[in-house]
Amino acid sequence: MASLPSLLCLCVAAAHLVGARDTTSTEEPTGTAWGLEGPSVQPDQPSLALEDWEEPSEWTSWFNVDHPGGDGDFESLAAIRFYYGPARVCPRPLALEARTTDWALPSAVGERVHVNPARGFWCLNREQPRGRRCSNYHVRFRCPLETAWGAWGPWGPCSGSCGPGRRLRRRRCPSPVGDACPGRTLEAQKCVRARCPECSPDSCECPGHTLLGSVVTRSGQPLPGARVSLRDQPGTIATSDAHGTFWVPGVCADSQASVRAHVDGFSAGMAPARANGSVSMVTIVLDKLQKPYLVKHPEPRVREAGQNVTFCCKASGTPVPKKYSWFHNGTLLDRRAHRYGAHLELWGLRPDQAGTYHCKAWSEAGAVRSGTARLTVLAPGQAACDPQPREHLIKLPDDCGQPGSGPTYLDVGLCPDTRCPSPAGSGPRCGDEGSRCCSVRRLQSREIPCSGYVLPVKVVAECGCQKCVPLRGLVRGRVVAADSGEPLRFARILLGREPIGFTAYQGDFTIEAPPSTERLVVTFVDPSGEFMDAVRVLPFDPRGAAVYHEVKAMRKKAPIVLDASQSNTIPLGEQHGEAPLGELVLPPGAFRTADGRRYAGPVEARVTFVDPRDLASATAAPTDLRFVDGDGELAPLRTYGMFSVDLRAPGSAEQLQAGPVAVRVASDQIRMAGHREALKLWSLNPESGLWEQESGFRQEGPSGARVRREERVFLVGNVEIRERRLFNLDVPERRRCFVKVRAYVNDKFSPSEQVEGVVVTLVNLEPAPGFSANPRAWGRFDSAVTGPNGACLPAFCDADRPDAYTALITATLGGEELEPAPSLPRPFPATVGVTQPYLDRLGYRRTDHDDPAFKRNGFRINLAKPRPGNAAEANGPVYPWRSLRECQEAPVSASHFRFSRVEADKYEYNVVPFREGAPASWTADLLAWWPNPQEFRACFLKVKIQGPQEYMVRAHNAGGSHPRTRGQLYGLRDARSVRDPQRPGASAACVEFKCSGMLFDQRQVDRTLVTILPQGSCRRVAVNGLLRDYLARHPPPVPADDPAAFAMLAPLDPLGHNYGVYTVTDQSPRLAKEIAIGRCFDGSSDGFSREMKADAGTAVTFQCREPVAGRPSLFQRLLESPATALGDIRREMGEVGRAQARASGPLRARRGPVPQ
């Protein structure tokens, strides 16, 4: 039986769809009879072009959440936001367009439909002409572009007649829609008038009056020891007692005095006292101090001299930081000269103002430093974009080069991924609307002679400043149980504190990183309560390439029942064969309800410990183990274990609080010098993903005059278990470095064939055997995403002992594990990418070095810090902590570690070049493989091969029905078939083809002409019956007179595994293809496999034969004996024909003859 939370989530989704079917509401206008609502649109006309709309706006991508059946077809806006994510459609769409999956307007197919931009689209079968049912529709929405604020007006007068006050200034939003501009209309600033007259005791005291008050937390927990004062009077007037209450005589009743309270570890709070006769009452609520953290970082800008620029910074925390400082090239800028706050505005830029800028935000809880943003100031006449394209080599097909000369490469050119200044500079706003980028201005067509054909190609002829392709930092992935791999279905997803959606049935999720985000902190909450909240800092690519993550959630420990009136001890860490690392001690009477009342009943406690002595637990550990140090910079922690605490009354969903609770850590588990003194207890802030210190540890004294030798000595710390439930035993570590890693297309490691969007993970392992340090399996972990210049991963390192710290490094791409360079029989510098003698000092070992049966998915190294003055170690791959920029900008010739994709037996060629890891490289061309840079649709065909070996299969993709592309090549795809381990003599290939659909101009569809050609002596013997019927029902048919090939006009509908076709749509081309390949291997529409199942979900089957060993080639036999050779050919073709008849016999019996 399904759990109640799961059923509730299903009911929510069903409610969205039911809401779309309710057509009786008349609160909002709807359009009928055709599929577009908007200005000046006729039923039989295509959608308006971008330039035809009066209000600046753009179309979203196409959505399809429902298939026709039952009552009709329904594309509810609520359902679209539920399944695709709320950020995919703007809050108030301007218009809606609907088309069938054959790209026809509703009026063209004679169907009556309903459209409403605020609700969605619906088509009812009962409203259609007799005998007709609703087609399958997909829809898109027209969304307004974000409108920019006007300039701030002057400051108004200071409020009040004396003392402190505030002044206001306003700005105007030019849009007629009131809330089109994000942010506030008003901005306030503190100000001070002349000092107010002092208050004398005679006029301020009221002997017959009493002030009664209490100080509590946000959850109602009383706070003893709070220092209470009046806002307008210095000094403490009272201190709260053990119940959080205080009593002050002589406070005037008619003053409505504002009363302040302060407790260490909490932000100061204030509340007005309300008079009731001779008594005034006040309750002051205090929030726990929360270290500030950045939610908006300054972004890079390019400007011309004389233009203006605005940098923006925003921090959060408790209290919210109000003080900001700005730095230029590390030097503090004068606050009075620049009059800055969270925004820094620079007017009339000069060349000397170029460089790096960063901000620092302050509050009483601490400070935090932002990332740096580079400002480029161009001199008058200086070009921001070099019109001459840079070199970019692509590999040509093998039959396009000289025989025996190896692969042939062609320079197709690329434009540098740089920003251009906007035409009029920037006003006082944070965004950079109308931003331009250096991109392709002109393409040039060429023809490459190949073996028996001519290969068309378009190369970059000129670069120029064009409107930027909108970039979205996307994260896709799946949440699964760490112990069983089962998906976490319908888990709630929180971005900081804000809920943004749910995981799907298979645990899948898609998240778009907000602009100017550097740390994407996401929490996955299991609806069943069986798993710990999975708080993750997910690396993403801000350049727009999507990244795939598999998130593993840790199952909570089985509950134990505690007696609240007794002292209870819970062990921390129960690793097999190991003593517990420590214990949690809950004294009698330590439990309270959320409102602060004592709880004396039984308690169900689930204390789950993430034990670093278990290497497998690293994948389920939360966040990235970082904190904000005293300088406001992010610094790493080394963990000795983490634990979550879940306390509830039996049968209750409400969490209990507890405290003070003692945390005791066995000192014999901490052996590294200095770590016992530096060990701290931390709690996780789920909003920022950062750890904040709760307490230190002290060594527990001996219990008597004599201590037994076997008695363990503990370090003791204390913690209050309130809102936060995840704690950490960590040591800040100062010996830090960065490790440089790159990923490549194949093991040739060509500099021009690097792969972006690869998630590289580094786990700090326990020291080498014999080194007297921590008995840990791992101490911390970090992940980074490769960009055009690789990735730099933080790690602990040591200059004196190379083996003091070791690391395991792995890399994945969309679920695919990449393979590092080999280390057997010994690591070669040219292969590994690291020069000698540094390579020997690092001790590089691939995971299969000691046992060839092990997976080759990672490598281990000693983290030997480069020694100063040693030239052999000054060029990577390990860089000092303060040399991050040198690591990030290191040339490809510098030392680095290497990974390569295992799937090297495939080839991709596009007539219009496009780098899938850089969406900004997309070019608007009718022959572009991907027609929409905002959404990518990947299509694959599963081809089964009956033969003794693996074969290369090619997909030739050309224009099929569009008048301007018919017969022109889009691209080639080659894929080698993979053997089925359960089917000897059978293999299958998942071959990509160009999906049919609208071309980039969104005016007319093209059904791609796809030709599948196995490269060998092969004959087609079977075609999927459903696919064949579909193609017959969607003319025109493609002649099938070549028995060695299969050709079709690709379907417009996203068919599934029953047809042998696998279609996935995503905002990342690479992820779309990886998911489709996983489904194709599995032979299902929702599964994923890396093991080929050749008999499941195939589209077409070929039979391939190998030539008899020692037999002359066909050309030689024709020369020597033409008659015998022709007889052999006729006999072989007859055998193939009989095999075809056997394969298609059952189909003929049901449907009659079918042409092959």
From TrEMBL:
InterPro entries: CarboxyPept-like_regulatory (IPR008969), CILP-1/2_8th (IPR056257), CILP-1/2_b-sand_dom2 (IPR056256), CILP-1/2_C (IPR056258), CILP-1/2_dom (IPR056255), CILP1/CILP2 (IPR039675), Ig-like_dom (IPR007110), Ig-like_dom_sf (IPR036179)
Subcellular location: Secreted, Extracellular space, Extracellular matrix
Gene3D superfamilies found in the cross-reference section: Immunoglobulins (2.60.40.10), Thrombospondin type-1 (TSP1) repeat (2.20.100.10)
Family matches, as Pfam families: CarboxypepD_reg, CILP, CILP_5th, CILP_8th, CILP_C, Ig_3, Mucin2_WxxW, TSP_1
Domain of life of the native organism: Eukaryota
Record key words, sorted: Cleavage on pair of basic residues, Disulfide bond, Extracellular matrix, Glycoprotein, Immunoglobulin domain, Secreted, Signal
SUPFAM superfamilies in alphabetical order: Carboxypeptidase regulatory domain-like (SSF49464), Immunoglobulin (SSF48726), TSP-1 type 1 repeat (SSF82895)
A GO cellular component annotation in the UniProt record: extracellular space
Renumbered residue ranges of the record's region Disordered: 21-47, 1137-1156
Span of the signal peptide: 1-20
Domain Ig-like: 292-376
Protein name as annotated: Cartilage intermediate layer protein 2
